[in-house]
């Protein structure tokens, strides 16, 4: 006959699952004592419900994901903070100037196109119609490689064919 | 697993201090002289003064006792403690960088944007506004077009050339219903690929056919914006997508009618990312998920978005729809 010993009920953290495991283990043993695996099972929270231990790699992933110092808070001294602020402002200034320059360049190109088309329209209507006609839409080229800082190892591929 | 080192254990390297601030015999003398009638604070034995502000002002501590941490949430304009701007190093959202210009971003501004401008240029003559005919056209434009999925071609000028605004990486993991380890692995993988901490989303509905229960953490997403989006897209185009076996390209009909293009990547394709490939065996088997990648553009319709991506080098399978 199964008996629950008084020590199990007085433990501070009562886990239903661990208690059930203890019952099943005690039933298997055939006596009424509470097995030591009950207390050990409670303390070791890594065991899943079926009893298989979680993978060490998952433990590592969880450790690094839930670490309180992720991301680590930066604490700068006064002079270090001033240096950061100066560099940040200079960088923002540079970025704004670069963005403006890029947008102005596109505007200049657009205006030149418009002026050229207008000039052609007023000069020769026939040529204008042929220039502006969009009978064939030309898509951009997919194979256009994004430029790199250094050239490729294999150089120009003379045997390349589309498809 | 995550632990905090208690401050009491932190010791300055050059001192030989014990846990107790005073030697044991002085404490015992103090305890005999401690009064029980005075308030509790007065019974604390006096310590030697240590500076909390700067290690240069003397004292045995090399680090200040109180470490400021900026508030996590903005509590409104009347709250005194305001989170600092995200560019400040004291902010929780601070990300250091940038450390280099991006190839694809420079390529876009140098080559792709002018090309798209030329390709989409339509010459408009000097407009003459006729109140009878043209006013009705203006009123028609104010209402949304019918049917709802109809996408009108936009008038392109130098102000509205399509550009890349952001990329969303999303992974829904069905096995996370039963075991949260799958979601942790997915979150770690998404974080490795994008460089951004993934956010978790919970399921909303109970659908028995798919064994879906509401309120369970089931998917992770990460949003990449600005320069990092160009970096991620360039990595996809140059490194990851060419390695996928028998990949024909993004579907020609993809798009949400607002200029956002989505395609999926299988688990094998995700393994082709250099960040995953280098430590592939640090993930348990079958825990590397597939992803959906959504590329957000500023083009108002799908075709212009796909033309932009084609100009950047993303291959498509089938005609544009």
From TrEMBL, chain A:
Main location: mitochondrion
UniProt KW Disulfide bond keyword: no
Subcellular location: Mitochondrion
One GO MF term: structural constituent of ribosome
InterPro entries, per the entry: Ribosomal_mL40 (IPR019192), Ribosomal_mL40_fung (IPR042831)
Keywords, in A-Z order: Mitochondrion, Ribonucleoprotein, Ribosomal protein, Transit peptide
PANTHER family: 54S RIBOSOMAL PROTEIN L28, MITOCHONDRIAL, LARGE RIBOSOMAL SUBUNIT PROTEIN ML40
The protein's name: Large ribosomal subunit protein mL40
UniProtKB/TrEMBL annotation, chain B:
Example GO BP: translation
Top-level division of the source organism's lineage: Eukaryota
Keywords carried by this UniProt record: Ribonucleoprotein, Ribosomal protein
Record-annotated Large ribosomal subunit protein uL5 N-terminal domain positions: 160-213
GO cellular component: ribonucleoprotein complex; ribosome
Transmembrane segments: none
Matches recorded under InterPro entries: Ribosomal_uL5, Ribosomal_uL5_C, Ribosomal_uL5_dom_sf, Ribosomal_uL5_N
Large ribosomal subunit protein uL5 C-terminal domain: residues covered: 218-316
Keyword Mitochondrion belongs to the record: no
Name this protein carries in UniProt: Large ribosomal subunit protein uL5m
